[in-house]
Amino acid sequence: MRPAPASGGITPSSGVIHSNVRHAAAFTVVGNHLAQHRGLSLVAVGLAVHIQSLPAGAKIGIKVLAGRFPESETRIAAALRELEATGYLHRSRVRLADGRIVTRTVSCNQPGAEAPVLTIPRQRAARPAAPETPAPAPPPCAPEPAPLPAPVRVPAPTARTAPPPPVPRPQEPTPEPHRAAAALLADLRRHSPQLALSEHDVRALTPGVATWLERDAHPDSVRQALTTDLPVPVKHPAKLLRHRIAALLPPPLPGAAELVPVRPGVIVIPLQNCDRCDRAFRSRHPGHCRDCRAGFHAAA
């Protein structure tokens, strides 16, 4: 298929060249204000186009969209928040006639524009027909979400009453692990910009990371444990890292003697050194080996 020439009949020598075929069915009209929006991510733009192409009543929950696309639930939730903040999506809690509270979602193809008022004609009856009754229009698409109705009261989440876990401390504080731990914490913002810590936070969290290093944890393992699966957005990076340092702290590595397997039912008698000839023998108590004890009896 040859590309269609640009406006004016001239095909550009560089840049994108469109090859357009007019759609006759199964298409969606999307405004350039959405397709070329500078404040939305690519995930949010694609999600808005997908939602606008769905029929009325289609399910667009986070789990439904995560099952349809390869993006994770975290990225889809963040994209929905972007669309809600820019007015392309409006979500509100409403109470039904049976008392249930549901979430009503309205997709807006042009934020800020008023939706037309729909009219529902009544069926003819024997008596004169009544004038047409206007049906309630969906809420206008605006960046600010509409307030909840007065009867609906959603309880706030329970505040955290337990104190945060203490930062672990190394058994033998030495300067070298502390320097490495402080450098690792200060370098986290290169891998995850939302984990930008202040100098005070680095000093407070350094003993915890030094404890990880004291227990032979590799710096890459520590960095991965602190930066994987971060919430969106990260409101308190220091509190998040404090929790992960304490909750994910690995145990000390076992010694070589603790890794020797012992068969069930077998009693292992420890080795002792003879007090006279320094020969090794098995006994529960220190003393002399069999030959030295036999020599003592012969001499007696």
Structure characterization notes:
The chain is mainly alpha-helical and 300 residues long. Among the domains are: 32-134, Arc Repressor Mutant, subunit A (Orthogonal Bundle); 175-247, no CATH class; 267-299, no CATH class. Helices cover 33% and strands 8% of the residues. The strands form 3 sheets. It has a two-stranded antiparallel ribbon with strand order 1-2. A hairpin with a 5-residue loop joins β1 and β2 (101-107). α2 (42-53) crosses α4 and α7 (199-214) packs parallel to α9 (237-247). The longest helix is centred in the C-terminal third of the chain and has 16 residues, at 199-214. The model has no long low-confidence stretch (mean pLDDT 80).
CATH class of the domain at 32-134: Mainly Alpha
**What's the shape?**
elongated
Whole-Å distance between the termini?
A: 114 Å
How many helices? The count is: 10
Describe the strand arrangement of the main beta sheet, using strand numbers. 1-2
Extract low-pLDDT stretches. none
State the helicity in percent bands: 25-40%
Q: Kindly state the mean pLDDT as a whole number?
A: 80
Which CATH architecture of the domain at 32-134? Orthogonal Bundle
Report the major sheet: 2 strands, antiparallel
CATH level 3 topology of the domain at 32-134:
Arc Repressor Mutant, subunit A
Give the topology string: H per helix, E per strand.
Answer: HHHHEEEEHHHHHEEH
Our estimate of the beta-strand percent is 5-15%
Given the helix and strand composition, which structural class is it? mainly alpha
